[in-house]
């Protein structure tokens, strides 16, 4: 293995992060061969057949261009032995039982991967995991009986679903953490060289592994904090008559703050923000910093409040009608626009609360798979007789008393030029009181009111019906 050259990479985990990262690395490094491996034959089969298991803009186009140097396989041992560098891109959910329950990261899948690498390797390896590097180094020391050299690097991903390929091609930064040893520095340099194929050197930051890992948690926690900060003002706006969109603009025009992540919503979701904040809370608690833990915990509590309060606002506006068994259409179920991911979606809270109040809920999402939505509802013990997944928006809205827009898909916008739905037919097919709750502020209230709807907007005052 040449000292400064990486020619073969193995990526363990054929999911969202592993496949997107491998595709872009192969695209930008023509001399490198990458094998993405997974224990799931169905997942590998889907990638091979081009029936892609995830939807991500531009991913399909890149995969077509790297077909000769990016392979998918279930032969994990062979891929490990052929590789110089191994990325571990497996799930690290929050611990559900035992120490750290509800907060710590469950790194058992990562640990299993590292144990497998040490067991089957016949040559030195550079390992890039998605877990605690110190923990993995200790594991390697215990299991390495062959005298091989295993260097562990930290290379956290900063991908947003819906823009992952763009994020990889045009990153704000790439962070690489390594041990401060000659071998650690050499391993980091080899990973740096892969990214330098397209990323300027001043955007590639090398540091120690703790700084790398904590930096990832801090970035996601602060992004989530911005969302919760603007969301915390929606209830105040609704009470006093201020406009949350004006507030977002006023705040965002301050160059010290900027406009990003200041769009009010029903709450943040997805697989990263809450998980990383919980991990940060657990880390602070374990180090004895309880005030710091409570500080970040407040962000999660604010997000829970934001999700739960939307159902309260809808029902309070309905007045006496709220006690009736109404039909409510929920438009959008993925945790944000631009992704099919329904994991930890904030929309589930609204659906569960509405069903719990005896209402019938009909759900439509233009991108999320019907079976994924149904699986999420099933796990939440929401029977199909009360929570129905519709094939299109018209079907979901037909006969509805209330429509709630929960995900900011362009399909739901009403501005001329962006309008894709027949809102007049939808309005005509609704039952009184024909209430529209816009939880994403994507519709023109005056336009829908002209069609006979009553519009309730997030972060804006509304009189009783």
Automatic annotation (TrEMBL):
Catalytic activity: UDP-alpha-D-glucose + 2 NAD(+) + H2O = UDP-alpha-D-glucuronate + 2 NADH + 3 H(+)
InterPro entries, per the entry: 6-PGluconate_DH-like_C_sf (IPR008927), NAD(P)-bd_dom_sf (IPR036291), UDP-Glc/GDP-Man (IPR017476), UDP-Glc/GDP-Man_DH_C (IPR014027), UDP-Glc/GDP-Man_DH_C_sf (IPR036220), UDP-Glc/GDP-Man_DH_dimer (IPR014026), UDP-Glc/GDP-Man_DH_N (IPR001732), UDPglc_DH_bac (IPR028357)
One Pfam family cited in the UniProt record for this chain: UDPG_MGDP_dh
Binding residue positions for NAD(+): 38, 43, 92, 132, 161, 275, 343
SUPFAM superfamilies per record: 6-phosphogluconate dehydrogenase C-terminal domain-like, NAD(P)-binding Rossmann-fold domains, UDP-glucose/GDP-mannose dehydrogenase C-terminal domain
Catalytic site positions: 272 (nucleophile)
GO cellular component terms, semicolon-separated: nucleus
Pathway(s) per entry: Nucleotide-sugar biosynthesis; UDP-alpha-D-glucuronate biosynthesis; UDP-alpha-D-glucuronate from UDP-alpha-D-glucose: step 1/1
Keyword NAD appears in the UniProt entry: yes
Designated name of the protein: UDP-glucose 6-dehydrogenase
């Amino acid at each position: 293995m040449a000292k400064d050259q990486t020619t073969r990479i193995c990526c363990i985990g054929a999911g969202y992060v592993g496949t997107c990262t491998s595709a872009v690395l192969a695209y930008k490094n023509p001399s490198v061969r990458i094998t993405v491996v997974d224990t799931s034959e169905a997942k590998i089969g889907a990638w091979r057949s081009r029936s892609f298991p995830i939807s991500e803009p531009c991913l399909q186009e890149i995969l077509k261009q790297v077909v000769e140097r990016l392979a998918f396989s279930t032969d994990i041992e062979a891929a490990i032995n052929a590789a110089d560098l191994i990325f571990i891109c497996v799930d690290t959910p929050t611990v559900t039982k035992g120490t750290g329950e509800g907060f710590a990261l469950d790194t058992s899948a990562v640990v299993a991967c590292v144990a497998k690498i040490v067991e089957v390797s016949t040559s030195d390896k550079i390992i890039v995991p998605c877990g605690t590097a110190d923990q993995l180094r200790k594991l390697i020391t215990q299991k390495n009986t062959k005298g091989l050299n295993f260097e562990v690097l930290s290379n956290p991903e900063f991908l947003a679903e819906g823009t992952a390929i763009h994020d990889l091609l045009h990153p704000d930064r790439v962070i690489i953490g390594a041990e401060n040893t000659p071998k650690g520095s050499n391993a980091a340099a080899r990973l740096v060289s892969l990214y330098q194929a397209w990323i300027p050197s001043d955007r590639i930051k090398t540091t120690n592994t703790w700084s790398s890992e904590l930096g990832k948690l801090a970035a996601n926690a602060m992004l989530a904090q911005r969302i919760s900060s603007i969301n915390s003002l929606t209830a105040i706006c609704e009470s006093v008559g201020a406009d949350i969109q004006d507030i977002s603009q006023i705040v965002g025009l301050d160059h010290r703050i900027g406009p990003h992540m200041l769009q009010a919503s029903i709450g943040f979701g997805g697989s990263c923000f809450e998980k990383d904040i919980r991990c940060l809370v657990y880390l602070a608690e374990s180090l004895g910093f309880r005030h710091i833990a409570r500080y970040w915990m407040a962000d999660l509590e604010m997000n829970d409040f934001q999700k739960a309060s939307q159902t309260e606002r809808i029902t309070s506006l309905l007045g006496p009608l709220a006690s009736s068994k109404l039909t409510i259409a929920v438009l959008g179920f993925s945790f944000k626009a631009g992704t099919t991911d329904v994991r930890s979606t904030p929309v589930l809270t609204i659906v569960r609360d509405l069903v719990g109040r005896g209402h019938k809920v009909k759900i439509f999402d233009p991108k999320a798979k019907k079976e994924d939505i149904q699986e999420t509802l099933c796990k939440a013990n929401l029977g199909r007789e009360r929570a129905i997944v519709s094939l299109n928006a018209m079907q979901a809205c037909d006969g509805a008393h209330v429509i709630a827009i929960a995900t900011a898909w362009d399909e739901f916008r009403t501005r001329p030029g962006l309008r894709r739905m027949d809102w007049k037919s939808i309005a005509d097919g609704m039952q009184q009181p024909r209430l529209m709750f816009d939880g994403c502020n994507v519709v023109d209230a005056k336009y829908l009111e002209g069609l006979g709807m009553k519009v309730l907007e997030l972060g804006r005052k509304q009189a009783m019906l």
